[in-house]
């Protein structure tokens, strides 16, 4: 990497020369001016500096207000969702950069892992009312009705988690699809290609700007490892999950049917 060409203390520039000449002109003017004129000149300069500072502060304030108004304007155009008023947010510092560490959702399949994913995906569907779908801007033709009233619906995050789970199933297809036929594999290719596109759209939509850096962990590695200490503002998952569970379709027990 080439070094940054910092100027040394002995270097001069046009700006330095202009500054020197300006100082000399001020000194000459001050020597020739009367005491009253010198005082007037000083207060005039102070007034001009203060005025410029006020203008800069005003411009910054207008700029920030414009950015805020722009975001608010975009949020006002976003489709309504019944969950949006229930979502809470928090600072999150969690990163998955160590390939040897796994959560209850990652690693080779285990009964505990399967149970964790099943619990995570359980409230994927909810009964939406006709008015909710209309307010959300959904097409109202040929809606799939649900027994007990309402219409089948889900929210985007559960669709994306569904896609992740399907990709995981295929990654460990020897466990989850041990007897997969050629026709089934062809279907999965189409489904998973849709899932990849769904996740691409969501990832690029939210545009995570957290910084990731790279560091050498072991001398035997051929490339540096990813690391990050970035903090992000994230939705509190339990605020979404609690809402989803509260809206899940009520399933009658077998003894009640």
Characteristic key phrases:
single chain; 257 residues; mainly alpha; two-stranded antiparallel ribbon; 6 strands; 52% helix; 8% strand; flat
As residue ranges, the low-confidence spans are 1-35, 252-257
Nearest-angstrom radius of gyration? 31 Å
Taking all residues together, what is the mean pLDDT? 81
Count all strands and give the number: 6
Shape: flat
H and E string: HHEHEHEHHHEEEH
For the largest beta-sheet, the strand count, sense and barrel status come to: 2 strands, antiparallel
Helix content: 40-55%
How do the strands of the widest beta sheet line up side by side?
1-6
* Percentage of β-strand residues: 5-15%
- Euclidean distance between termini CA atoms: 73 Å
Secondary structure topology:
Elements: H1 14-32, H2 35-77, E1 89-92, H3 111-121, E2 126-128, H4 130-135, E3 151-153, H5 156-171, H6 173-176, H7 182-206, E4 213-215, E5 225-227, E6 232-235, H8 237-246
Antiparallel strand pairs: 1-6, 2-3, 4-5
Helix pairs in contact: 5-7
Note down, in words, how this protein is organized.
The protein has 257 residues and is mainly alpha-helical. Helices cover 52% and strands 8% of the residues. The protein has helices at 14-32, 35-77, 111-121, 130-135, 156-171, 173-176, 182-206, 237-246; strands spanning 89-92, 126-128, 151-153, 213-215, 225-227, 232-235. The strands form three sheets. The protein has a two-stranded antiparallel ribbon with strand order 1-6. Strands 2-3 form a two-stranded antiparallel sheet. Strands 4-5 form a two-stranded antiparallel sheet. α5 packs across α7 (182-206). The longest helix has 43 residues, at 35-77. The model is unreliable at 1-35 and 252-257 (pLDDT under 50).
């Amino acid at each position: 990497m080439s070094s940054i060409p910092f100027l040394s203390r002995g270097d001069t520039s046009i700006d330095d020369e202009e500054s020197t000449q300006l100082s000399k002109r001020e000194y000459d003017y001050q020597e020739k001016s009367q005491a009253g004129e010198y005082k007037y000149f000083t207060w005039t300069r102070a007034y001009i500096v203060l005025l410029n500072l006020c203008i800069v502060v005003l411009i910054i304030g207008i700029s920030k207000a414009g950015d805020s108004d722009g975001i608010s304007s975009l949020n006002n155009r976003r489709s309504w969702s019944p969950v949006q008023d229930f979502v809470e947010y928090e600072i999150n510092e969690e990163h998955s950069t160590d390939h040897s560490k796994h959560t209850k959702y990652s690693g080779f399949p285990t009964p505990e892992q399967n149970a964790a994913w099943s619990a995570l995906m359980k409230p994927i569907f909810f009964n939406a009312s006709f008015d909710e779908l209309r307010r959300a801007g959904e097409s109202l033709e040929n809606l799939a009705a649900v027994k007990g009233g309402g219409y089948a619906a889900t929210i985007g995050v559960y669709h994306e988690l569904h896609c992740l789970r399907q990709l995981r199933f295929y990654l460990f297809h020897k466990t989850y699809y041990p007897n997969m036929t050629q026709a089934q594999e062809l279907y999965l290719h189409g489904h998973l290609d849709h899932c990849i596109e769904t996740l691409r759209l969501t990832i690029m939509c939210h545009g995570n700007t957290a910084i990731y850096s790279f560091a050498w962990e072991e001398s035997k590695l051929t490339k540096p490892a990813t690391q990050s200490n970035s903090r992000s503002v994230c939705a509190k998952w339990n605020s979404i999950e609690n809402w989803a569970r509260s809206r899940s379709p009520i399933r009658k027990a077998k003894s009640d049917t």
